[in-house]
């Protein structure tokens, strides 16, 4: 079963606007990661946030984690056409499942 | 030029044939993984290996087999027992265990007719 569920499934915005994607999960985690996938390509790791962290930044990316609500958000500021991709959250369960569990992703389209 | 390579990028097979997908990494990572991705979906774990000569089934291992004879290589065989093999297959590796950052190959798109 999918641990992470992204919301929305698809998002279309104008270049320069901010994009926010959300991820909810079910079990307690060690960490939560965000990945990006361009169409027909492999995934690229963006950022990892540990369960004892609440917010993390990397360039134009800002990730928050609320373990009480079992949710995370990924904010991309000042979006560019090149940000068009699918974004996935992945969770590392604390229950020792020894695997990352990926959500179904948010398809982000940046319109020039 | 370090990274993970998968070959071929596109693969076509007739139903009933076994096919092997290649995955090679020169990152010196101990752990390697195989995922399957269907259109508009997330990734599902097929098999993973944390060390040479050892591997574990993931969530959807039925109809697939793997080997890990070398640290650098983790080939995946899609057997004729896999009922719906047409999909995009992704290989990944990580320095530490499955909970860490994973590095992905470019993927192989398998079409079985």
Features:
heterodimer; A: 112 residues; mainly beta; six-stranded mixed β-sheet; five-stranded antiparallel β-sheet; 11 strands; 0% helix; globular; B: 113 residues; seven-stranded mixed β-sheet; four-stranded antiparallel β-sheet
Concise summary:
The complex is a heterodimer of chains A (112) and B (113). Chain A has 112 residues and is mainly β.
Oligomer: heterodimer
Q: What characterizes the major β-sheet of chain A?
A: 6 strands, mixed
Helix and strand sequence of chain B: EEEEEEEEEEE
Instruction: Specify the overall morphology of chain A.
Output: globular
Shape of chain B: globular
Between the first and last Cα atoms of chain A, what is the distance in angstroms?
A: 37 Å
Helix/strand structural class of chain A: mainly beta
Beta content of chain A = over 45%
Helix content of chain A: under 10%
Question: Segments of chain B where pLDDT lies below 50 for 5+ residues?
Answer: none
Mean pLDDT metric of chain A: 92
**Tally of separate helices of chain B:** 0
Number of helices of chain A: 0
What order do the SSEs of chain A take from the amino end to the carboxyl end, as H and E? EEEEEEEEEEE
Quantity of strands of chain B, as a count: 11
Question: How widely separated are the two ends of chain B?
Answer: 36 Å
Beta fraction of chain B: over 45%
Task: Give a description of the structure.
The complex is a heterodimer of chains A (112) and B (113). With 112 residues, chain A is mainly β. Chain A has no helices and 11 strands. Chain A has strands at residues 5-7, 10-14, 19-24, 29-37, 43-50, 55-58, 61-66, 71-76, 85-93, 100-102, 106-111. Chain A is globular, with a radius of gyration of 13 Å. Chain B is mostly beta strands and 113 residues long. The chains are: A mainly beta (112), B mainly beta (113). Chain A binds chain B through residues 2, 4, 30-31, 33, 35, 40-45, 48, 88, 92, 98-105, 107, and chain B through 4, 33, 35, 40-45, 48, 50, 56, 58, 88, 90, 92, 97-107, 109.
